[in-house]
């Protein structure tokens, strides 16, 4: 038991590794995760809109991209992008591997985020698009102003989970070789554990990862419950909608259904 505690919970060594983990590793991990997630969200939204469109030449390449980058291991993508594009990255960014690492992580996250966006978009009833078209809105205008905003609100927990996955996948960047100032949480913990022949620094790195992921998960769940309570006034903890408001909603729903039926009848 003493040997186990000494190997995993050497408190002096664990505390000595925290300054490097928090000052360098945490900053670099967040930089990698945030930039790759932002790029992944932008690319994922484009891919999702292509995938749900009715145009075959938009649907097919989007589906191929999603299938490929969801099917490949993250380590393989990081190595292929980091080493395959190394000459280009060296001429543009110098010896810093971060830009190529961000590109690799963004490619991975965009494929998963595209599926998340697509599920959110397709969860919105078809009648709302029919109602938009009955009001004279184009397909893309209806998607932008009506369908996508509703779908995005429904997928916030899934997006948060994807960010957590990117935080953990960022540990694979050490394959590309990092300078001392570029090390992420996992690399610092691993190097210190190898140098000291003790796993306490890796335990400390794991604690820092948990400090990122666990509060984020609970915060997103709280926001999701809060938005659902106010979007469904009759739900538990919320006030019931006034009678006039409920009547207006029923009337709007009936108009949407009537518009949808009219469009369906006019179709050849």
UniProtKB/TrEMBL annotation:
GO biological process, alphabetically ordered: amino acid transport
Region described as Disordered: 231-268
CDD domains: TM_PBP2 (cd06261)
First-listed, main subcellular location of the protein, grouped into a coarse class: membrane
UniProt membrane topology term: Multi-pass membrane protein
GO cellular component labels: ATP-binding cassette (ABC) transporter complex
Cell compartments where the protein resides: Cell inner membrane; Cell membrane
Key word Membrane present: yes
Known function: Part of the binding-protein-dependent transport system for glutamine; probably responsible for the translocation of the substrate across the membrane.
Family that this chain belongs to: Belongs to the binding-protein-dependent transport system permease family. HisMQ subfamily.
Listed name of the protein: ABC transmembrane type-1 domain-containing protein
UniProt source species: Paraburkholderia largidicola
Lineage: Bacteria, Pseudomonadati, Pseudomonadota, Betaproteobacteria, Burkholderiales
């Amino acid at each position: 038991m003493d040997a186990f505690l000494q190997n995993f919970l050497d408190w002096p060594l664990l505390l000595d590794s925290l300054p490097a983990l928090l000052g360098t590793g945490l900053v670099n991990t967040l930089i990698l995760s945030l930039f790759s997630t932002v790029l992944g969200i932008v690319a994922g939204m484009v891919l999702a809109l292509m995938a749900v469109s009715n145009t075959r030449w938009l649907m097919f390449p989007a589906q191929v991209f999603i299938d490929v980058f969801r099917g490949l291991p993250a380590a393989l993508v990081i190595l292929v992008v980091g080493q395959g594009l190394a000459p280009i990255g060296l001429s543009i960014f110098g010896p810093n591997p971060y830009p190529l690492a961000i590109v690799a992580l963004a490619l991975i996250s965009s494929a998963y985020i595209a599926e998340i966006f697509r599920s959110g978009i397709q969860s919105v009833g078809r009648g709302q698009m029919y109602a938009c078209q009955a009001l004279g809105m184009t397909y893309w205008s209806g998607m932008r102003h009506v369908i996508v905003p509703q779908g995005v609100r429904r997928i916030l927990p899934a997006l948060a989970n994807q960010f957590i996955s990117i935080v953990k996948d960022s540990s694979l960047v050490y394959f590309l070789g990092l300078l001392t100032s570029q090390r992420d949480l996992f690399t610092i913990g691993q190097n210190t554990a190898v140098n000291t022949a003790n796993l306490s620094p890796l335990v400390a790195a794991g604690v820092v990862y948990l400090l990122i992921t666990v509060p984020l998960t609970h915060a997103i769940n709280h926001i999701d419950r809060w938005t659902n309570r106010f979007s469904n006034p009759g739900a538990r903890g919320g006030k019931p909608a006034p009678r006039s408001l409920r009547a207006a909603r029923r009337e709007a729903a009936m108009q949407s259904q009537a518009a949808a039926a009219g469009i369906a009848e006019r179709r050849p």
